[in-house]
């Protein structure tokens, strides 16, 4: 009888952990696209600042302005792309 009680308790424990992990992962996946879009919006604001401060390279100005905004829009609508960008930004921060 003692072994049966342990066998019944084990799946319940794993079921609870799986349920908690599923809730956490769905919460995170719902919010990551907004978070990454916000990060790239901040980068685009930095690009506008760079546009007015560093006018030495006029051939790159349009790329400084548009790339972060386009990446933010794609990240907002595509969760996989947002996750990839988040991981890349995380590694860039770790390297710096």
DSSP helical segment count: 3
Number of domains: 1
Strand runs, count: 0
Helix content: over 70%
N/C terminus separation: 58 Å
How much strand?
under 5%
Report the biggest beta sheet as strand number plus sense, adding barrel if it closes. none
User: Helix and strand succession?
Assistant: HHH
Structural category? mainly alpha
Radius of gyration: 22 Å
Shape descriptor reads elongated
Mean pLDDT: 76
Extract low-pLDDT stretches: none
Keywords: Membrane, Transmembrane, Transmembrane helix
Transmembrane segments: 32-54, 74-95
Layout of secondary structure:
Blueprint (H helix, E strand, L loop, with lengths): L1 H52 L7 H17 L1 H17 L1
Helix pairs in contact: 1-2, 1-3, 2-3
Describe this protein's structure:
- This protein is mostly helical.
- It has one domain (2-95).
- The protein is 90% helix and 0% strand.
- α1 runs antiparallel to α2 (61-77), α1 crosses α3 and α2 (61-77) crosses α3 (79-95).
- The longest helix has 52 residues, at 2-53.
- The protein starts with a helix and ends with a helix.
- The model has no long low-confidence stretch (mean pLDDT 76).
- Keywords: Membrane, Transmembrane, Transmembrane helix.
- The chain crosses the membrane at residues 32-54, 74-95.
Short summary:
90% of the residues lie in helices and 0% in strands.
């Amino acid at each position: 009888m003692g072994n049966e009680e342990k066998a019944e308790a084990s799946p319940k424990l794993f079921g609870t952990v799986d349920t908690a992990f599923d809730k956490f992962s769905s919460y995170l996946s719902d919010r990551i696209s907004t978070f990454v879009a916000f990060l790239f919006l901040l980068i685009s604001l930095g690009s506008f600042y760079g546009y007015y401060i560093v006018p030495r390279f006029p051939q790159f100005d349009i790329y400084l302005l548009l790339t972060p905004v386009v990446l933010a829009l794609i990240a907002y609508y595509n969760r996989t792309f947002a996750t990839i960008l988040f991981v890349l930004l995380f590694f860039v921060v770790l390297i710096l």
